[in-house]
Every structure is written in C-alpha cells, then in structure tokens.
Amino acid sequence: MKLFLGMTGLAICALASSFLFREFNFGSSELKFIADFGFGGMTVFGSALAIIVTAQLLLGEIEHRTAMTLLAKPVYRSEFVLGKFLGVWVTVACFIGMLTLCLVLALWMRESSIRLDYPEEIEQGQSLVHYGGILWFSLAQVFRIGILCALVTLFSTYATSSIFAMVMGVLVWIVGQLQHVATEAGGVVENLVLKTIYSVMGYALPNFHLFDVGEGLAMGEALPISLVGKLLIYGVLYSVFYLAVATASFNRREL
Amino acid sequence: MSAAISIQGVSKDFRIPGSKRRLRAVDNLNLEIERGSVFGLLGPNGSGKSTTIKMALGLVRPSQGKCEILGNSSLESSARKRIGYLPEAPCFQRFLTGRELLFYFGKLSGVKKTDLEDRVNSLLVRVGLEDAGDRRVGGYSKGMLQRIGLAQAMVGDPELFILDEPTAGVDPIGAADIAAIIREVREEGKTVLLCSHLLSKVETICDRAAIMVKGKLALEGSVESLTAATDFSSARIEGLSAEGRKQLETFAAEWHFDLSTPRRSLEELFLELAKGDGDLE
C-alpha cells in the first residue's frame, strides 16, 4: 500500500511538473508535452510498481512461509499463481486509472486556459485533445503492464529471492522496449544461427514498443479502435502464455 | 477402510546447491497411521520429520515411493480438503485480525458461508482467543500465534490433523490447553499426526509413536510398548512413617534395590501455581 501510494504520488508529481516545463517544450505543443509526461509516468512508474509488487507478493509468501499454510488447504497451485497475478494486475490497473484521471484533468485545465487565451484561433466545438483516445491508450497500457506482471510472476515461481525476480523483470522490460530491434535484425542478418536466435527472441519476448501509440492524442488525433483491439489480444495472448509456463514451473517447486 | 496416512517406500533426495551430490533427507520410509489415533513423529533436528510432513501434505514430491492421505494421493488437491495443518513456527498474514484470518482459511477450506461465522466464534473460544480475535495477527505473541494456527487447522473440520511442534513457544498452561484440545479431537474420532520435541508431552498424548534418525525409521510402536522397561518394577508407598522408612532402607540394602522419594515435575508445580491462586497444596 505504501509503495502504491508512493508511486502514485511520484507519478502525479511528474505530471504536475510538466506545467513547470511548458515554457521549454522543445518544439512540441504544450498539450502534447503534458500528455507525454503523463504517458511516461504511466509506463515507467506503472512498470516499476508491477515489477516490485509482483516479486514481493509471490516470493514474500514463500519467504515468510505463509504459502505453506495456504497451499496445505485445498488450493491448486495454478489458483495461487493466478490469484497473485490478478492481485497485482488489478492494483496496477487502479494506478493507471488514477493517473489517467489526473492526466485528463491536467489536459482539460490547460486546454480551457488556452481557449480563454486564444478564443479566435480555436474553432468553437473543436477539441484540441482526443480524450476518448486517452482512455483507450490507458486501457492498452493496462494490458502492456499485464504482460510484465505475468513475466515477473514466471520469474518469481523459480527464483529464490525477490531481488533476482525484480532484476529479471527490469531486464525484460528493457529488452521488451527494444525487442523490435531484434526482430528487425532477424530480417537483415544472414547467419542462420543469429537469425534463429533473433526470431526466437522476437516471438518469446513481448514487444512493448507496440503499445507506444499515444503520439497524436494530444493533437486531437483519434486512436483506431481496431489497433486497441489488436493490442489487447496481443497482451492477453502473451500474459496467458507466461502464466501457463509460470504455473507449470510453480507446480514443480518444492516449498 | 484405508489408513489415515500411508507412506510406502518413500525416499526424498535434495540437490545440494553448487554440487552434483544429493542429500537423502528421507530414506525408504514405510509408515501406516491408523484412523482415530494420535501418532507422534519424533526425531532429532534434521532427521527428516518435516520433509515427511511436507510430503504428506503434497508440498514436496517424493523422489521414490508413494504417499496417501485418507486413501487419496497426497499430491491431489482434494486430499487436502480433509487435512488441518499447523506448521512449525506458523507465519500468517500480519495485516489480518485473528477473526479475519479464520474467515480467510475457512473460505479456502470450503466451509459454507452460513456456517463460517458460528464456527469462527466457537474456535476463538476453544483456543482461548475470544478477547484477541479482533486484534491484528502481527501483534500476537508466539503462544497466541500457535493458538490461532491451531484454530485455522480446525476451521475446515478436517478428519486428519498434522501438527508440527504445536506447543513450541507456548507456556505450560497453553501447552496443557493444546494437549487437551488434541485429546478432544481424538475423542471425536479424528486422527492426529504430531511432531514434537517435547517427549513428555508426546508420551502423555500419543497412542503410537515413531522415531526417525537420519531419515530412516528407527523405531515404531505403541507408546506403552516403547516406554515399557521389562526388567524394572516400582512400588509407590504413601504416608510412610519414619520407622517404616528405616525398616524399608534396611530391607533395600539387603536386597540391593534403590529407595527414592518421588518428585513432582516443575511443569506440575507451575500448572498448580498458575491455575490456582498462587498457593501450593
């Protein structure tokens, strides 16, 4: 709970700081600058929250030996793993929901003040920000972080310390952000072994870069629903795959 | 009817980290625990008792042999529906109150919602925690943790109890209360597998006992048969006068036997003081 509140506070501070930097917006529009801060906060703090809480929740039960009493009851290990995953996922979804609310509020406040400052330049009824798109974007981030939670759950099922699971989670998060590089390299490289390695990595690891689709939302551009749908399916498939492997791994674990 | 616990030719090897060698924690163990009995599993530290218990609960897979609980494989989740387990030095979710903890484990054990409240209340009374039921488990003393642990083991009304060191960290009054609960449970026709270092407790509670040494079964039988000394007899004389004692001492010297004054144990003394008003009889 303390971690959740801490991360939420940090993310809101990061979002609020975007108001201070709006004079140094590096060529982007003010609204886009605020949106980028908000999206960045969701991804970075949401991922950190997911990695830390997932590792602590599952391994904490094993390290504190509460899992022994629990699994001595008629509880399947798959239920235990799935329960932990859902617990973290819902927590992260709440975090993203709260940040989305703050982001929408920040954008709406700034949009209103811009409207007052430049009433003639902006057409009546024209929205500068696509708020519906922001909601869809946030939903996609929930599924992106769902994949990360499933992966850290998998590491936690065989790790002996939560630090190991957290470090693996951070590494996978970095690799996942750069996964498209491996996929592209697989297409260029001619060496069969390297090509195979890149291809396997391309399929085995998720491509988190796919979820970075918020580029034009603060400039009034819509987010195609079909794209959001594809991202949700992508997120569900990878999460289910990692959770299935996590369950198989945890079934073999001796407590 | 099948045995409550049937362990047939079970061995367990653990890999030693950083080495190809394996450590045999349990070696070809055969054990049958009859239903309705209290069975004591004894042995020094590292003798394989806890591993045996974990295998019986399906928390650890045997390397060889098979382990059955109430006729089902111990690896099946359904087998655990009829088991109440109290781990050694139990750890619970610290943020829950004792009452919430029992509700939580009651739900996991499949107790009907309608029965749960009554059962939780009666268990809190039975283990002597009725006044501490609404306090967080994180603030419980060792003895209180053992009591709430025993209550969570009982919440599903199981047929078989597996209790690992149930009296560890508990004061003599608490230990006597726990022993009384174990006796009550036996009277209800349930089976108890008890693992303890307090041999005097085991002797008074258990019907049968087994002693494990270095992963192997060293001895097994009824407590009476295990503790009976065949070449030894004793007599108890109450109200012996000084003259009578003198004659008896002469007789003892002639026949080469020992004459001693029986002592009461410190535990008896403590219980008498703590349960009474501080005066000894």
Describe the structure.
The complex is a heterodimer of chains A (255) and B (281). Chain A has 9 helices and no strands. By secondary structure, chain A is mainly α. Chain A has one domain (2-251). In chain A, 40% of the residues are buried. Chain B has helices spanning 49-56, 98-108, 113-126, 142-154, 172-187, 199-205, 223-227, 242-255, 266-275; strands spanning 5-15, 22-33, 38-42, 64-69, 72-73, 83-86, 160-164, 191-195, 208-213, 216-222. In chain B, a hairpin with a 2-residue loop joins strand 4 (64-69) and strand 5. The termini of chain B are far apart. Chain B has a domain at 35-46 and 76-229 and 264-275: Rossmann fold. Chains A and B meet through helix 3 of A and loops of B.
Oligomer: heterodimer
The chain pair with the largest interface is:
A-B, 14 and 24 residues
- The helix-and-strand class of chain A reads mainly alpha
Number of domains of chain A: 1
Radius of gyration of chain A: 21 Å
Order of helices and strands of chain A: HHHHHHHHH
Range of helix content of chain A: over 70%
What is the CATH topology of one domain in chain B?
Answer: Rossmann fold
Output the strand order for the largest sheet of chain B: 6-7-8-3-9-10
Backbone structural class of chain B: alpha/beta
**Can you summarize the main beta sheet of chain A?**
none
Secondary-structure element order of chain B, N to C: EEEHEEEHHHEHEHEEHHH
Mean pLDDT of chain B: 86
Judging from the principal axes of the Cα atoms, what is the shape of chain B? globular
CATH structural class of one domain in chain B:
Alpha Beta
Helix amount of chain B? 25-40%
What CATH architecture label of one domain in chain B applies? 3-Layer(aba) Sandwich
Distance between the termini of chain B: 49 Å
Low-confidence segments of chain A, given as residue ranges, are none
Residue share in β-strands of chain A: under 5%
